[in-house]
Amino acid sequence: MQIELHQSVDADGSALNNKYDIERPIFLQPAWFTEFEKHILDSGKIPVILAGKENDSPCHFLPFFSETKTSLLKPKTLQSMTNYYSPYFDLVGRRVSQGDLQMFCTASAGLLKQYDQIVITPLLSEQADEIMTALERCGFRSFRFVQTQNWYHDNIESFEQFYSNCSKNLRSNTRRAKSKLDSSGEFRIEISCQEDLEQRLNDYFSVYEESWKHEESHPEFLCAVSRLAASNNQLRLGVVYHKNYPVAAQMWFVDSRTAYIFKLAYREKYSAQSVGNVLTMEMCRHTIEQDGVTTIDFLTGNDSYKARWMTKNRDLVGVIVTNPKRFKGLACCARERLAIVKKMFFQV
């Protein structure tokens, strides 16, 4: 495998976008990273794209960024092109088989040796294993840390089977709340992909502004990836209306047999009506019955309410890869080793 360095996902004009399989979750498609570059990376950061070729044909790439400014004291760092919007990090391109990530990292080791440290998040444990195995064989030293949790429910056969595994209190309270909304005649639920997309996005943001959450930091990015997902029939945007007034909204993505719960919010003044739970229940029903999903994934975060909906959880981890053959890389390695010793000492 040959690895080339690009300064942008769109570096060659035709975009890496057009050379790779888009049949993957939206957050692992090239266009996601194009929009990330455009809306999230500030002027102090530059994209660093490691693009792989096999027999002169593009196969995968890994998107990173680095700082434009360097200093004598600060280590030269390569960071995965991820932030709080990013549920997973993986090879971008065609569908990934076991061992592909390890092989790609091995082939990339020569280019990575110009950095003191590489920080990669968020990863599943098996992905971290592949990265650490490949780069440690090439002389790097790597360290793993738990970043957050991922709650999910797999092996779904029907909505009723899925719902029967949710918390008993959740089931009874949500069904009671749905019955009250229906009997009032004042509430309705709309779940769509492309229909009235711009209005639905406006409704989502209006709900978000009056929810318990912080202000949306990059609304242009969310709009861009939502439009992209809608164009591929991967978006499911659900809204609860009270007399045509949006009171709860959720943004999900669907890929193959998995539904990903990406964003959700409700107006706090409607919390007593459980509009958020009712919408989640109906989104689950829709994706199971209409889209045929067999897994529902709550993505990142260990919020307590997720355990009431999902049956399984797992760690999402990060990896810090240090280069002991560079002076500041050796210092980074010593820092991480010291952190491990301190943790062991304080746990005794």
UniProtKB/TrEMBL annotation:
<dbReference type="Pfam" id="PF13480">
    <property type="entry name" value="Acetyltransf_6"/>
</dbReference>
<dbReference type="InterPro" id="IPR016181">
    <property type="entry name" value="Acyl_CoA_acyltransferase"/>
</dbReference>
<feature type="domain" description="BioF2-like acetyltransferase">
    <location>
        <begin position="169"/>
        <end position="306"/>
    </location>
</feature>
<dbReference type="InterPro" id="IPR038740">
    <property type="entry name" value="BioF2-like_GNAT_dom"/>
</dbReference>
<protein>
    <recommendedName>
        <fullName>BioF2-like acetyltransferase domain-containing protein</fullName>
    </recommendedName>
</protein>
